[in-house]
Amino acid sequence: QSLDMRVLGLTGGISCGKSTVVKVIERSGVPVIDCDKIARQIVQPGSSGLKAIVKEFGKDVLQADGSLDRKGLGKIIFNDKEQRRKLNKITIPRITQTIIWSLFSHFIVGTPLVVIDAPTLYETKSLLPVCHSVIVVATTEEKQLEWLMARDKSGEKDAQARITAQMPLSSKVEMAEKVVWNTGTREDAEKKTMAIIKEFQSNLGLSRLFSGAGLGGAGLALWILIRFLM
User: Fold this and answer.
1) CA distance 106 to 29
2) DSSP letter for each residue of 204-219
């Protein structure tokens, strides 16, 4: 069994078509760790994450059935950086720890390539040390606004406010090793995605143990042990 595993970070702007890219990656057989899914798991009723949120923000963030009122919490943190910081302090360590355990599990069974789907990969920075490369899904400002308005059935003002609240897409594009420009058809985006994944798969034999671009398989395991498990 090879001690070499590559980890790709996948991110992008809101309503840029990242879900389409994820589906292509999953169909190719490469496992995808979904950070949004984990974020929901760590605040399930009875979890330490939800208890910590209630302690910080009060019982008003709970719905009648005891689950988290995401919209209510969203209104609290949307325009308040300090409140967002408090929430991130609760959620990010729990999300990161769950992801690291998942990566370690893949490493143990010899998975050669894993993708972390992380919408706020560049904002939080906590997962960048384990990513050998980052793929950003991007589109034009016009298409992003159009798609977001259609998705959320929102007005232009509200949609633009959501986009503006995020890190500029141009900044993510500048930092990424690979960019999937989703400016054409769905088929076009799928082909671009598959080409990038095949490129990484063809380079799996090239060991980059503790290289500047990221950690090799054995290096990844050591980093995990030191950072989270010891």
Assistant:
1) 13
2) TTS--TTBTTB--HHH
